[in-house]
Specification:
Elements lengths: L2 H26 L3 E12 H6 L6 E8 L3 E7 L1 H11 L15 H22 L6 E8 L13 E11 L2 E10 H6 L1 H7 L9 H12 L6
Antiparallel strand pairs: 1-5, 2-3, 2-4, 3-6, 5-6
Helix pairs in contact: 1-4, 3-4
């Protein structure tokens, strides 16, 4: 994936983070802040190795592109969100165990809000829909991509009240290639001023050009 596309993804998902912060704050009825951290290009197997186990892990369909992404919500914030939705403070979470079926259903609702915001943000690139297509508490049990397939891993920091954790979005490189034409339209390249050395080189080059007068 070209570095220019990675920069465009950074800008795109900074906007997503701002929007989903507002949506989750209203949904959970507690101040929720989401901010983007790193974007890394690696293999799917390397992405899995960096995730906690157990955790809240989702396969995400991307239609109509017939592509599949992955999303992981750290147990610390998952349990905090569950606590809020069940009427508690969300501070007495227990991230040392896997989510139960009922707890996963609650997280499904939270992730639906997240994916609605992601779909809306991506509309500037391409009209696609992000939807939950599967879930598991063990990331290695939900095969989203081939182990050596190249992916982009977007790491977000999430704060729910006083609880902090991470949200990780895994996008296959082929998905980015499929929407690359949208980057130029949504995020035109920023014009950079030439350095003093570049200007001197340009003047020397222009001086060597023959032009009839």
């Amino acid at each position: 994936v070209a570095q220019a596309h990675v920069r465009s993804l950074q800008l795109l998902h900074e906007r997503f983070a701002r929007n989903v912060s507002s949506s989750l704050s209203a949904y959970l009825r507690v101040v929720t802040e989401v901010s983007i951290g790193s974007i890394r290009q690696l293999t799917y197997d390397e992405f899995l190795q960096g995730l906690p186990d157990p955790t809240a892990y989702y396969a995400i369909s991307v239609s109509p592109l017939d592509s599949v992404a992955a999303l992981e919500l750290n147990p610390s914030v998952a349990f905090a969100m569950i606590g809020r939705m069940l009427g508690g403070s969300g501070a007495d979470s227990d991230p040392a165990r896997a989510l139960t079926e009922i707890e996963q259903n609650i997280v499904d609702g939270v992730l639906t809000v997240v994916l609605e915001n992601l779909t809306e943000t991506w509309r500037s690139l391409k009209d696609v829909q992000f939807r939950i297509s599967g879930r598991d508490t063990r990331p290695h049990m939900r095969q989203v991509a081939a182990p050596h397939e190249t992916v982009l891993a977007l790491a977000f920091d999430v704060r729910v009240g006083d609880i902090r954790g991470g949200l990780n979005l895994c996008l296959p490189a082929r998905l980015i290639e499929a929407v690359r034409d949208g980057f130029a339209q949504s995020y035109p390249q920023v014009r950079q001023e030439a350095t003093a050395g570049q200007r001197r080189s340009l003047v020397r080059s222009l001086g060597a050009i023959r032009q009839p007068v």
